[in-house]
Amino acid sequence: MPLLPSGAPASGTVPPALDGHVLLQVKTTGPAPLGDVSPVDGGLVFCGRRAADNAAEALREDGFTGPVLIDPSAYERHVATPERPFVTGQGSLLAEDGLQEELERQRERKATVALTPTAFLKAGDRASLEAVAERASDLGGDDVLLALPLDMDWLRGSRHHDLIALLPRIALPKALILCAPRDPLSSMSAARNLREVISSAPGIGLLRSDLAALDAMVHGAGFAAVGDSASARHGPVPGGRGAPRPRRDPAVLFPRALSYHYGETLATAFEGATEVPRCHCAPCREWGAAHGTADGLRPLTSFTDSADRADAHRHNHAAWSMIWDYVMAAPDENEAARRWGLCCERALPTLSAANEAAGRPGNPLKPPPALRVWAASRGRSRRR
Ligand SMILES: [Zn+2]
């Protein structure tokens, strides 16, 4: 698989080690399929309070040779102010915010590039955003990645125009992280506005995301990361307002429907149905062989318990990797965008058919609002 569609120009604002990569973002290492990640076109981003320890462990024990990022995740606990846009939580001898020392700590941990400890940027807080940009301009070296953890409300109304105006002026490689109590792309307008922002800053990254990472990649992003668990598919809001309670059943990617559904939701929906969606990804084939299923595949209704979590995460990673492999096997970037658009178009009728096959009232398998946006337009990559 090519790293980039042939003819796609590399952008000067993308760290070369990340260019064209879709990484796995991990908060809790236990159920994460670290051994399945490709060092060639994938990689790992560790986030949360244990990010540094988890990264060091993965590097030491598995000898992973692909890109590894350590997201200090300052935005999980701290809100940015114009005076204090970066927060390390540790004292510094050199500067009040300890920014350089935090970056150095990541380098010592063998991070591929060092990610800034940017605090949470409240929607519409242009002063803090500008302070981030200004302080970032002081940072030297070609191994620093500016993290921009944004309140999801930056994508509502016309606030995203401030991002579009400012982002291209920041010369440092940069990556967006969307923060919300739940899905940051819970409205079609947010998904549409995110595309506009990504397209306005070619080469930018989108970290800690879901399948929006793939949509971003065909609309100008230089690299992206898909979360292993729900808590790694978006950032939280400091203070934790409205965070959902953890569930026993894992979220399962329904590959042809390009959407995540809880294992119990899938099992209940198809209870008694004759047609149940089945998966042919490598981990699911392994499971099918071990359980002697007639077609060697695994039903998507079989991930109902916390004991199925690691299997579900392996399946999820394998499933989106298969989709991405198909998109990236395109001969050029326009064809890649077309392929992604076709996958999205096909997903909506797939979900309708699945609801029909399940025969439950209320159509329990809901399409994510972003999918309607991705399916509605086959945009061209603007990474030029
Ligand atoms: Zn599978």
Automatic annotation (TrEMBL):
Disordered as annotated region, ranges: 355-384
Name this polypeptide is given: tRNA-guanine transglycosylase
